[in-house]
Design brief:
Bound molecules: N-carbamoyl-L-aspartate
Radius of gyration: 19 Å
Order of helices and strands: HEHEHEHEHEHEEHEHHEHH
Structural class: alpha/beta
Mean pLDDT: 94
Helix content: 25-40%
Low-confidence stretches: none
Number of domains: 2
Number of strands: 9
CATH topology of the largest domain: Rossmann fold
Number of helices: 11
Amino acid sequence: MVDHAWSHRHLLSIADLSVADINTLLGKADTLFDEARKRPKKSEALRGRTIINVFFEASTRTRSSFEVAGKRLGADVINISVATSSVSKGESLLDTVKNLEVMRADALVIRHQASGAPNYVAKHTRASILNAGDGMHEHPTQALLDALTIRRHFGTLSGLTVAICGDIVHSRVARSNAILLGKTGSKVRLCGPKTMMPRDAETLGESATVHANLDEAIDGADVVMMLRIQNERVYGPVMASTREYSRTFGLNARRLAGAKQNVIVMHPGPINRGVELDTHLADDVRSVVLEQVEAGVAVRMAALDLCIGANTEIAPS
Ligand code: NCD
């Protein structure tokens, strides 16, 4: 079989990727995942390259795993935290990016509160742009690392039933996952209170269904993915109380009994234990939350390598 060639210099959204692109990236990440378990050695693939993490929103996993990923590939990785950068002095996003570009950054990893910010920047720079989460829009590397985790468990991404539960409307994770899983032939069930469900929810994945009842969404599911309420993006009242929310939409072992016997429980983190996910269940053998984080490094290594490799605008190192 001839390998599908990767042609994207940016990774902006799952919507931009074909199924062949997704499989190419996941195939590469899968190999890197196994290699890291055997020998976490540095490679020379991105030696001489400079990657800059520019994060306008809080992050633990995404930022550190992009950093580990870049360093494992031999690149120089720099982190810019907006609180201590000149953005706090009023500099625009584009000016910040232009300044980083002349330092000969090969890739900029951007997290921003505005949906579409990475797409906008990508039109104005020669560097590769990797979207590390933009507002309520997309979080492509999260969906890819979730897909890698699912694929490693079930051997496939097609024919599965995946329940994604919680604050769907404000979640870029839900959006990217629904699009990816729909493309690869899994059934996506989106579940949450009406106040947390987008009006066009059914159009998110290719075969998405909408559920206001958690037990109904979980029934016979292979994967249950729980989401945090995105309080930073919630402006009006969306629920009566946290207690009421966790009673109605929180996942615990009793409710999970309605899923398939070999179900896996996922969460992108950060988990609000006892709200959307019971604290014991978060540490249960069915929970794969730490495997997701492990897969994140492999997926980000693959993404950085593929995007920088496809970028003909930047000089070779
Ligand atoms: C998610 C995000 O930032 O969108 N976190 C992550 O990247 N792992 C989800 C969240 O913050 O709830």
